[in-house]
Amino acid sequence: IASSLFDASEKRDVVPWSALTAGYARRGKVGYAKQGEMESARKLFDEVTKRDVVTWNATIAVYVLCGSNEQAFQMFKEMSLGEKPDVESLAAGAIELGESKSTSSTPKIGGVNRGASILDFILRIIAFLGTLVSAIAMGTTRERLPFFTQFLQFRAEYDDLPTFTFFVVANSVVCGYLVFSLALSIFHIIRSNAKRSRIILIFFDTAMLALLTAGASAAAAIVYLAHKGNAKANWFAICQQFNSFCERISGSLIGSFVGVVVFILLILLSAAALSRR
Questions:
Q1: Pair 135, 172: CB distance under 8 Å
Q2: Are residues 123 and 196 in the same domain?
Q3: Where is the Casparian strip membrane protein domain (predicted)?
Q4: Final residue of a domain: which of 53, 85, 117?
């Protein structure tokens, strides 16, 4: 309708043209801008009998909002040959260009964050399985050795050492946390631009990383002593007698340290997603 009124106008000067193009530019790129008929819009511009800075600015704004930045820059150079750009025209062009770039980059950033959220979900499942297997493997570790008769036996169980008990508790707590954190991970896949929930997740992920690292490191030190012993402290290498016990406690460390690495990756992913906002 606005274009029809402009075509019917006998006097096509700066006022009706500026009003027409400003309406196109500010109302979501409708009319010629939405249909991509910039040649027709340029034809209307050429029919204007009198042009000033306002007319040029309105036309350049339409080009920028349509993503035709090269054409907008070309028109700006043409404008410089006839009209001298003032401070307002330069500022308006910069604002329009900045808004255009910001709008065009938002879907890309959202897509990257969604991909990172999907990877976050997969990594949490891996860490959950690793800590679950470690807790079960260590918690079910026990071995008995007969001493002369079946009535007199030596035994080795994980709860004989408080360090191994702490290892089982730490892995169990982290495993339970990972189950509940999957809900937030799914939420981030749906709402890739969420910010506060990611900050909360980073906080708890860091706490769980510290707990899991402490448990795995302490257990690894005891496992080393079980294999190598310490002659100065008069600690014997019990793995020479309890082979099955040592194999189980050594294998249980693998899933726990995998969880440590995964938590580091999870924290980095969340930080990267926040930095893109």
A1: yes
A2: yes
A3: 114-261
A4: 85
Whether 132 maps to a domain, the answer reads yes
- In whole angstroms, what is the distance from residue 54 CA to residue 63 CA? 15
Q: At what angle do helices 243-275 and 196-228 cross, to 10 degrees?
A: 160
CA angle 3, 5, 10 (to 5 degrees): 115
β-pair partners for 157: 142
Residues 6+ apart with CB under 8 A from 262: 123, 124, 126, 127, 130
Contact present, 189 and 233 (Cβ < 8 Å): no
Closest by CA to 82, choosing from 50, 110, 104, 118, is 50
Question: Which are the contacts of 216, defined by CB distance < 8 A and separation ≥ 6?
Answer: 167, 170, 253, 256, 257, 259, 260
Task: Tell me how long the chain is.
Answer: 277
Residue range 218-273, pLDDT digits in tens: 999 888 887 787 777 667 777 777 777 778 888 889 999 999 999 999 999 888 88
Residue 93 domain flag: no
Report field, pTM of the whole predicted structure over 0.70? no
Structure tokens given for 164: 């191994």
Count of domains in the chain?
A: 2
